[in-house]
Amino acid sequence: MDGRCVDMPTEPPESDFRSRIRLAAYPTLELGGVVWAYLGEGAPPALPRFEWTGLRDDQRVVTRTWQECNWLQALEGGIDSMHASTLHTTLTPDTGRAGLSGLWTVPVPLSDEVEVTDYGHAYASIRPMPGGRKWVKVYHYVMPCHTFFPFELGGDGETLQPIVNGHMFVPMDDENTMVYNWIGKYGDDALTGSEREILEWSRGRAPGEVDDRHRKRRNRDVDWLIDRAVQKSETYSGIDGINNQDHAVQESMGPIVDRSKETLGTTDAAVIATRRILLARLTRAAPGEDPPGVAPTYYRLRAIERVVDAGVDWRTELRDLYDRPADGTGADG
Ligand SMILES: [Fe+2]
To answer: 16-29 burial string, b = 16+ CB within 10 Å, else e?
Structure first.
């Protein structure tokens, strides 16, 4: 288990050669339907402990998809909220294709407000709603590679479903990423079979959508199977599956996008914050110091969304929902 060579039949019995060689070996852990490995030096840090890893198996779906671009490009797509109001939308209620509708058809502008934390950041995408209300979606970025995003509100803005989502963007090399996708149902109930089926289908992860190497059937070699007729009349992108739409945009930028040519705007606040805290950690990391995302402060985070009055400050009035107190008050589940 620790990489030691236990036997070398090709060596004479008196040889101790086996004691002098070692394979690279890493401690692993099975948790939340995922095998985790610690690749650093010394003893591993505290075990990962997200809300979703603590759910029962029947409350959770975990899958993985190979994304053919740099991990930061993929991560930033996962952190951006703005794109969902266009890229993932349907154009008509008269379509059987997956996509966002209802609340999502409320026109932007929106604003992004970021709260930098010790684990990364929490940020709220705020969209104005009719009647002086606003739609607040609170996301989390837990360094270095975890995103949580809410999927709680029905299209009417009132119905709450206890569903949270997230990704882990794990680099395979500079130009390829393995994206671990999870969906969790908090509370007591299990995810029903049809919930699993519909949620996975809508994200473009139905059976047959990825091969045994986790590569998408809708990949860049086939232009993500974009259908221009569908794009004209049914969905904004013409590509089936919400995550396929994300991948199409992020992969078509090239494997590593040239950020020196970017112009970031107001709703890129969370992306800007992500780059700042990543850059800060590169230059200030101290040997032996736990990196961000290890301390227990992320244990009770949840991505949430609510439609609230315009005067509500999400950082105070919604905090017990998105950074749940340890005593179980708030929307504990
Ligand atoms: Fe997206």
So the answer is: eeeeeeeeeeeeee
